[in-house]
Specification:
Blueprint: H1 3-6, H2 9-14, E1 24-25, H3 26-35, H4 42-50, E2 58-61, E3 64-72, E4 77-83, E5 93-98, H5 105-113, E6 117-118, E7 140-144, H6 148-158, H7 165-168, H8 178-196, H9 201-218, H10 241-247, H11 250-256, H12 261-278, H13 285-288, H14 293-296, H15 301-324, E8 338-341, H16 350-361, E9 370-373, E10 379-384, E11 387-393, E12 399-404, E13 409-417, E14 420-424, H17 436-446, E15 455-459, H18 462-476, E16 485-489, H19 494-497, H20 509-517, E17 521-526, H21 532-539, E18 558-560, H22 566-570, H23 573-583, H24 592-603, H25 609-618, H26 624-637, H27 652-666, H28 673-681
Parallel strand pairs: 15-16, 15-17, 17-18
Antiparallel strand pairs: 1-7, 2-6, 2-7, 3-4, 3-5, 8-14, 9-10, 10-11, 11-12, 12-13, 13-14
């Protein structure tokens, strides 16, 4: 199928198939191509047309018309009063100019009937220099489809030759007849394109024909798409794209294109392969596909060219799906494609296996590893120095398991095809690429871009919410945000214990279970007040409602201060007395024995004895956030005193901060469905159900 066979200008105009993807004039097409790093020129395009291998879609010859005008502002400007008809009398001023052309249906059809609009391939070649009048104004203009960048790129690639100096310098002039060799090659290449057309011509024609229906859906971040288009000419009026889609008859269009389903599938495969080959960011396709359309348009060169090809691939895929009800593979589903043949390793597919390990499992040492297979043919071993990996077939030869020496494992699919055992890797997991949110989750995990916290630190009040991040930053030298820790302030222990008789496992059961299901650790730090200890004991025995093989949480993830509250558990009576004295601004000097009495009262069940003492002496209330600010300042001022000779933290609060940081660091977000499932069953988020 070539452009000449498929493309029909009258059909395009009658069906107004240029609304979503308008044709570009020659200069705009050249500019468009150069933005895609396809270097072309008017001279080259003219030569390709002269050789009858690459044509514009349409050509227009604009007739001159006489326009009635009226000068205003003392002759500085004029306004148009309409076209002067042949039999019309007019005594005023006129201006001769070329008529404007537009691809609006009725207007363009009239030009087509008057032979002022035509397909360049239907007429003999005319030198482009004749397109200008005596004054140098262009009266004849050519138009191209934006998708012709694909065929132009292929044509330029197949019609160029590279001469390397180092390859020729050692030969004498008598040995080589360069001119005749190049001429023979050029004649052969041009003749081949004249007879067979250009690779991708049918895809270009098809994409232009189906562009109104499918192109808007390709302008997408995979969650939303742009129905409106800023380049819509105003003369098309307000178009209801959704109504257009409802009236669309895919089967009729396929018949109009004189194409079979098999040919359409072949076109999709051709464009998809071309897009991945051209794209310098091909390995990041999945991530970039979720980027906004406006940001994707800021790509440069071949990366931008690839976006046009991806749009073409996507349109052909959507067309195929509407026709058949079946889905073709999208570029980000390529991990589902065959990785290697079991029977050809070691052998022809050894390089494919090593490349797969390097790209999809970040095994850099694999590129120079040695491959062997067990005597029974059921285990492939990959070894490099102390590093190793092995792939084992199961008994039924339906599944294989990749085990890497660093402890990672990964399941692979085995399919028997053409008497060979072929290995497939559905990298993210079954159905993931069809679920945009889950796919984006795994992608952002893979690129370490997911803003979801690795650990949520739940505290009961403002003081802890302010001082825990401060302690991490000034004592340990990192911010919570850097290691993926988010602080949630409960604003009181009651929001942990919940309502008695209603919240059996406290108010946070579902919160914790949900976040653990989403692979975020929830770590709770509380004073031992009210029903806190009882709720903790119940909560650690609760079964997860999301993952039946684990409990909701682990005991170590709920820190209740041993000495009832954060002040008495972490600071001496002297430190608390000095802090309260400082907070009083010298109005009263608190004594150590007064603080000791407060602790005893707290153990006896009295609520907030420090606050009561402060109020008695100062006649105004104690601010716990300000008190903790001073107390944590004592820790930060003398960091060398906070650790013993073995480097272990002395204070419980310092140990807690170190622990949550370690938990966050070890919580690697999963990049596959299989890894997520194994994490849920690992006991990391909740003890395993016995």
């Amino acid at each position: 199928m070539t452009m000449k066979k498929m493309q029909n200008l009258k059909y395009i105009i009658e069906n107004e198939l240029v609304i979503c993807c308008p044709f570009l004039s020659t200069d705009l097409f050249i500019s468009y191509c150069k933005d895609l790093d396809i270097q072309t020129s008017r001279k080259q395009l003219e030569q390709f047309e002269k050789l009858e291998i690459f044509y514009p879609i349409a050509r227009v010859q604009s007739p001159k018309i006489k326009t009635k005008i009226e000068y205003i502002d003392n002759g500085k400007r004029y306004r148009k009063l309409g076209i002067l008809k042949d039999d019309e009398e007019w005594s005023g001023d006129i201006k001769e100019e070329y008529a404007d052309f537009r691809f609006q249906k009725e207007y363009a059809m009239s030009w087509l009937e008057e032979e002022l609009l035509w397909e360049p391939a239907s007429r003999s070649f005319q030198a482009w220099e004749t397109f200008k009048d005596e004054q140098g104004y262009r009266e004849t203009e050519s138009f191209y489809s934006i998708f012709q960048c694909y065929t132009l790129y292929n044509l330029i690639q197949f019609t160029k030759i590279e001469l390397r100096a180092e390859a020729w310098v050692s030969h004498s002039k008598e040995d080589i007849k360069v001119t005749s060799k190049v001429l023979d090659w050029a004649e052969k290449v041009i003749s081949l394109h004249q007879n067979n057309g250009i690779r991708g011509e049918a895809a270009v024609a098809t994409c232009q024909v189906i562009s109104n229906r499918y192109f808007p859906k390709t302008q997408s971040d995979r969650r939303t798409f742009q129905v409106s288009h800023p380049s819509y000419p105003s003369y098309y009026g307000n178009r209801d794209w959704f109504e257009y889609c409802r009236n669309w008859n895919a089967r009729a269009v396929l018949n109009d294109l004189d194409m079979t389903i098999g040919e359409l599938e072949h076109l999709h495969e051709l464009v998809a392969i071309s897009a991945k080959f051209v794209d310098p960011l091909e390995r990041w396709y999945g991530l970039i596909s979720f980027v906004s359309v406006d940001q994707k348009k800021k790509l440069k060169g071949k990366a931008l060219f690839a976006q046009t090809l991806y749009s073409m691939e996507h349109m052909l895929r959507l067309f195929y799906e509407e026709l058949t009800g079946n889905k073709l593979l999208s570029p980000d589903e390529s991990p589902s494609w065959k990785k290697f043949s079991w029977d050809d390793v070691p052998g022809n597919d050894s390089r494919k296996l090593l490349e797969y390990l390097k790209v999809h499992h970040d095994i850099d040492w694999a590129k120079s590893a040695e491959i062997s297979k067990s005597d029974d043919g059921k285990v492939i071993c990959i070894v490099k120095d102390e590093n190793s990996a092995e792939i084992m077939l199961d008994e039924k030869k339906e599944k294989a398991t990749l085990k890497i020496s660093d402890g990672r494992t990964h399941d692979l699919e085995v399919k028997k095809e053409n008497n060979k055992q072929n290995i497939y890797d559905n990298f993210f997991g079954g159905g993931v690429t069809q679920n945009e949110l889950k796919n984006l989750e795994f992608l952002t995990n893979q690129y370490h871009l997911n803003p979801r916290p690795k650990l949520i630190l739940v505290v009961e009040g403002n003081g802890e919410a302010e001082q825990f991040p401060r302690l991490a930053r000034e004592l340990f030298g990192y911010s919570f945000a850097q290691v993926g820790i988010e602080v949630v302030n409960l604003q009181g222990v009651g929001n942990f214990t919940g309502k008695k008789g209603i919240d059996k496992y406290g108010a946070l059961e579902r919160f914790i279970d949900d976040y653990h299901h989403r692979q975020t650790v929830v770590f709770v730090v509380l004073d031992d007040e009210g029903r806190v200890s009882k709720i903790k004991e119940k909560l650690i025995k609760a079964h997860s409602k999301y993952s039946p093989n684990r409990m909701v949480t682990k005991e170590e993830y709920i820190q209740v201060w041993d000495n009832k509250n954060i002040e008495f558990d972490n600071f001496s009576h002297d430190e608390i007395a000095r802090a309260m004295t400082k907070l009083s601004e010298g109005e009263y000097t608190f004594k150590v024995d007064e603080i000791a009495d407060c602790e005893n009262c707290f153990f006896a069940g009295e609520s907030n004895p420090l606050g009561k003492l402060f109020s008695e002496k100062l006649k105004y209330g104690l601010s716990k956030p300000e008190l903790l600010n001073i107390l944590f300042g004592f820790i930060i001022s003398y960091p060398e005193n906070e650790f013993d000779a073995d480097g272990k933290a002395k204070r419980p609060v310092v140990r807690v901060i170190g622990k949550v940081r370690e938990l966050a660091a070890k919580n690697y977000p999963p990049v596959t469905q299989d890894t997520w499932r194994k994490n849920q069953e690992s006991g990391y988020f909740g003890d395993s159900v016995e």
